[in-house]
């Protein structure tokens, strides 16, 4: 994949983030969108080689619109200056945990950098309770899954100050119970993003996070069956 073209377009879009510029470069965006879709298809196939739960997904099941929803935001820039692919069972809107790859060459957007992530965020209350019950019952297993995800770390940005009501404050896994998001992340350099064989490298990185996702999705599946 010609990732240089993708990053170059995103940089220029960041510098000219208005509808007039975008309309004048719409054909270029169509080309870049196609490159990203082809890349996503290759990444889906690679992830499915070790995680069959995502087999059969299409690029459109895992990618997002370039237009921003500005209705409730003070930032009125109409377009995103980043691209992301989220590969999860049944697609990006399923509520299941999955594998996320994010490219953002200009650090004033969503995450400020290139990123690999694996997990679930913005979790529905019933699902979040199910995950915390999984922590309570199998916290050692989840801790080991996090350890096995070499190079990744648990994102603790969205963590409660206290163990939530209904769960034991004295639990040895109290810090995990405080999580509101259950997501592993690994920031990567532009050199990594531009390297040869990027899809294969991502597949090998994500392979280490599968035990973590398997455990999350076990809890998510149970909550979905109960709802």
User: From N to C, what is the helix and strand string?
Assistant: HHHEEEHEHEHHH
| Number of domain units | 1
| Count of DSSP strands | 5
Radius of gyration: 19 Å
Going by CATH, the architecture would be 2-Layer Sandwich
CATH class: Alpha Beta
Summed up, the helix count is: 8
**Helicity level:** 40-55%
Biggest sheet, spatial arrangement of strands: 1-2-3-5-4
The coarse overall form would be globular
Largest sheet: 5 strands, antiparallel
Given the helix and strand composition, which structural class is it?
alpha+beta
What is the averaged pLDDT score? 95
Low-confidence stretches: none
Question: What report would you give on this structure?
Answer:
- With 227 residues, this protein is α+β, with helices and mostly antiparallel strands.
- It has a single domain, classed as BirA Bifunctional Protein, domain 2, CATH 3.30.930.
- Helices cover 44% and strands 12% of the residues.
- The protein has a 5-stranded antiparallel sheet.
- The chain is globular, with a radius of gyration of 19 Å.
- 34% of the residues are buried.
What is the strand and helix layout of this fold?
Blueprint: H1 3-15, H2 19-24, H3 26-48, E1 83-87, E2 98-103, E3 114-120, H4 125-148, E4 153-154, H5 174-177, E5 182-188, H6 190-193, H7 198-207, H8 210-226
Antiparallel strand pairs: 1-2, 2-3, 3-5, 4-5
Briefly characterize the structure.
It contains eight helices and five strands, in the order αααβββαβαβααα. With 227 residues, it is an alpha+beta fold.
Features of this protein?
227 residues; BirA Bifunctional Protein, domain 2; five-stranded antiparallel beta sheet; alpha+beta; 5 strands; 8 helices
């Amino acid at each position: 994949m010609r990732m240089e073209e993708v990053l170059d377009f995103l940089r220029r879009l960041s510098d000219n983030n208005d509808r007039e510029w975008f309309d004048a470069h719409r054909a270029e965006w169509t080309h870049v969108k196609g490159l990203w879709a082809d890349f996503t298809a290759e990444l889906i196939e690679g992830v499915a080689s070790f995680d069959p739960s995502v087999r059969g997904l299409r690029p459109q099941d895992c990618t997002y619109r370039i237009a921003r929803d500005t209705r409730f935001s003070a930032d009125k820039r109409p377009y995103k200056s980043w691209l992301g692919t989220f590969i999860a069972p049944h697609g990006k809107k399923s509520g299941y945990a999955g594998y996320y790859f994010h490219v953002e060459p200009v650090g004033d957007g969503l995450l400020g950098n290139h990123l690999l992530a694996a997990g679930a965020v913005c979790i529905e209350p019933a699902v979040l309770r199910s995950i915390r019950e999984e922590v309570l019952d199998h916290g050692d297993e989840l801790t080991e899954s996090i350890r096995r995800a070499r190079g990744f770390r648990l994102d603790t940005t969205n963590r409660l100050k206290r163990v939530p009501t209904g769960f034991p404050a004295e639990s040895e896994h109290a810090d995990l119970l405080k999580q509101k998001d259950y997501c592993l992340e690994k920031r990567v350099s532009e050199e990594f993003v531009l390297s040869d064989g990027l899809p294969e490298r991502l597949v090998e990185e994500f392979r280490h996070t599968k035990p973590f996702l398997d455990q999350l999705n076990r809890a998510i599946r149970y909550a979905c069956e109960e709802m």
